[in-house]
Amino acid sequence: MDIRIKGTQESSAPERRRLTPSKTSLVQRPGLYSFALPSIHSKQVARSFLFFDVTLMVVLRGRLQVDDVASVGDAGFPKELVCVAEGVCADVLKEPAETEGAFRSIFLAISSDVLIDFFRMYPDFAGGGVPLRTCRKHPLDKALLETFRHCIRGLSQGNSSSEAELRHRLMGLLLGLATRGIVFQRPDGERCAERVRLVVQSDIASRWTAKSVGERLAMSEATLRRKLAAEGLQFKSLLSEVRMHHAMALVQTTQWSIQRISEACGYDSTARFSARFRSRFGRAPSTMR
User: Fold this and answer.
1) Which of 39, 47, 127, 262 is the Cys-Cys partner for 267 at CB 3.0 to 4.6 Å?
2) In order of start, what are the domains of the chain with their CATH numbers?
3) What is the 3 state secondary structure string of the chain?
């Protein structure tokens, strides 16, 4: 899928170059990033949506609102970057453009491991200024747009690029934001919930239990539950939230059947999956496209 940065002519200006993701509209590399190209045709509101990672979004068509921060896409022309801090829980509205009947955007979530490496490499940004703790939008000037374009061209290729190259592109984007005053909080890499999430995301279709995840993390089931409780979480609710995140991404970026999506998210029963999705997002998965 090609996403063009539209201009008045097809000629040479940098802002008219293509953002060229691959044909795959969802790419996930646990421990690095998640990249998606959501495309929906009806107005949607996801209440209390939890952003696990630092997230960057660009609206191409339609309107996006994260709590009280709104961004509008103009016929595929990216004008601004919506930046969301790790751990933000917000109401997210996506509304198709009236003239084109679709909402389209670019979604990039950057893993906490990359943020930790960024602050290790650029320690001056770790203690300078106030880190972003909520949501903010920032204009896409020419240089930042070029950096963003370079980044997503590599990320959209997924496994065809090395981890080192992908990490380098993400670092460049974070540096571009930091030099413009958008610095994120340094993650706590020791949080048990983060470690659990990464294990689950490594094979989200597996039938994970607290015992099997604990074995992967070299701790007993009791220790795992105790550590999560100390962070105010339960294993069952965290597992469900991770699966629902993945489900929403698949619903909005693929044409897979609901049965196939439910299986990809670790559910044996499509009916149980649909009920859980409706309970979490207020609508059946088939109506969220």
Assistant:
1) 262
2) 3-178 (2.60.120.810), 192-287 (1.10.10.60)
3) CCEECCCCCCCCCHHHCEECCCCCCEEEECCCEEEECCEECCCEEEEEEECCCEEEEEEEEEEEEECCEEEEEECCECCEEEEECCCCEEEEEEECCCCCCCEEEEEEEECHHHHHHHHHHCHHHCCCCCCECCEEEEECCHHHHHHHHHHHHHHCCHHHCCHHHHHHHHHHHHHHHHCCCCCECCCCCCCHHHHHHHHHHHCCCCCCCHHHHHHHCCCCHHHHHHHHHHCCCCHHHHHHHHHHHHHHHHHHHCCCCHHHHHHHCCCCCHHHHHHHHHHHHCCCHHHCC
